[in-house]
Amino acid sequence: MIAWCISLLFLAAGADPVVPIRVAVFASADISDPLVDRICAEAEAIWEPAGIAFEWRRIRSKDEAADWPLDVTIDDASVAAGALGWLTFSSDGPDRSVHLSRAWAEEMLRRSRVPPNITVARHDTLVGRALGRALAHELGHYFLRTKVHGPHGLMRAKWSADESFGVSRDGFELTPEQRAAATRF
């Protein structure tokens, strides 16, 4: 009944309903569901102003990702010192798999000005925020189909620890041109 009413509201408003992009999320067994939820929620909050929504599903095996248009792996692997996330490209464009390194988020947190004696919940909030912002950035590469970084906003190459862990999402916006390009995905 509720879905029917929402559909009527979209029809009455003349707006096209947003079709969420399906994303499979594979995380190491030692990564908690609440941390995965925080990562996904942060990325979604950054992309929401562009009119892009997601359907996240945690999967227990990488084999399950084959049926999903996009997949994210969260573990402690790394490709380069300090890389919170990455996406590979071929001659055809971006791969459909994003990788996030919890180990680098943890290291960044250890090196930051955050006091070392924070609660587990606060720790997970900060790590989830940093990895969610890295995920949003890598999704930007995917949607925009480019390796290029911008001078500011979500698609810049580097962020400070304060920006990665801070409450404010200022500085993680998309330009109008990036929004338009991403919604053509």
Short description:
By secondary structure, this protein is α/β, with parallel strands linked by helices.
Give an overview in words:
The chain has 185 residues and is of the alpha/beta class. The chain has a single domain, classed as Collagenase (Catalytic Domain). Helix content is 41%, strand content 18%. The protein has six helices and five strands. The chain has helices at 2-13, 33-47, 102-111, 120-144, 161-165, 176-183, and strands at 21-27, 54-59, 70-75, 85-90, 93-101. Strands 2-1-3-5-4 form a five-stranded mixed sheet. Strand 1 (21-27), helix 2 and strand 2 (54-59) form a beta-alpha-beta unit. Helix 2 packs across helix 4 (120-144).
Any descriptors?
disordered N terminus; single chain; 6 helices; 5 strands; Collagenase (Catalytic Domain); 185 residues
Fold topology:
Elements: H1 2-13, E1 21-27, H2 33-47, E2 54-59, E3 70-75, E4 85-90, E5 93-101, H3 102-111, H4 120-144, H5 161-165, H6 176-183
Helix pairs in contact: 2-4, 3-4
Cα distance spanning the termini: 31 Å
**What's the number of domains?**
1
- CATH 4th-level superfamily: Collagenase (Catalytic Domain)
Element order: H for helix, E for strand: HEHEEEEHHHH
Low-confidence stretches: 1-14
Largest sheet: 5 strands, mixed
Instruction: Give the number of helices.
Output: 6
CATH architecture: 3-Layer(aba) Sandwich
Total number of strands: 5
Q: Helix share of residues?
A: 40-55%
Strand order of the largest sheet: 2-1-3-5-4
Q: State Rg.
A: 17 Å
Mean pLDDT: 89
Structural class, from helix and strand content? Answer: alpha/beta
Q: Which shape, going by the Cα principal axes?
A: globular
Strand content: 15-25%
